Amino acid sequence: MSGTPLLGELRRLIAVEGPITIERYMALCLGHPVHGYYRTRDPLGAAGDFTTAPEISQIFGELLGLWTAEVWHGLGRPAPFRLVELGPGRGTLMADALRALKAAAPDCLAA
């Protein structure tokens, strides 16, 4: 059976430590420091394995920025005000949202 270099490492690990959990298997497949999926390629974008809405068009992020401005005004323009993006990626979503937010409610960025 042929495979990737990681296959040999997984076999050695299981031979020494016994069965591993699905969680550990996936962590190694995705994040192994040498052979992991995220270490050997950029999965995002046209040349990658998948893309996200912000990478296709800035409209999604801009709408989030405009929605944020509306919510901030509706809350009485509080300060401090934090807008946090909890997603991995290139920061495209937040860049688009902040650009629209700056145009719609520049005071919000200072809050």
TrEMBL record:
Alphabetized UniProt keyword annotations:
Methyltransferase, Transferase
Q: Does the keyword Transferase apply?
A: yes
Which parts form a coiled-coil structure per UniProt? none
Query: From the Swiss-Prot or TrEMBL record, what is one GO molecular function term?
Result: protein-arginine omega-N symmetric methyltransferase activity
Q: Could you tell me which Gene3D superfamilies the record lists for this protein?
A: 3.40.50.12710
Keyword Hydrolase present in the record's keywords: the answer is no
Any GO BP annotation:
methylation
Q: Which domain of life is it from?
A: Bacteria
UniProt-listed Pfam families: Methyltransf_28
PANTHER family tied to this protein: PROTEIN ARGININE METHYLTRANSFERASE NDUFAF7, MITOCHONDRIAL
Protein known as: ATP synthase subunit beta
Organism name: Methylobacterium tarhaniae
Name the lineage.
Bacteria, Pseudomonadati, Pseudomonadota, Alphaproteobacteria, Hyphomicrobiales
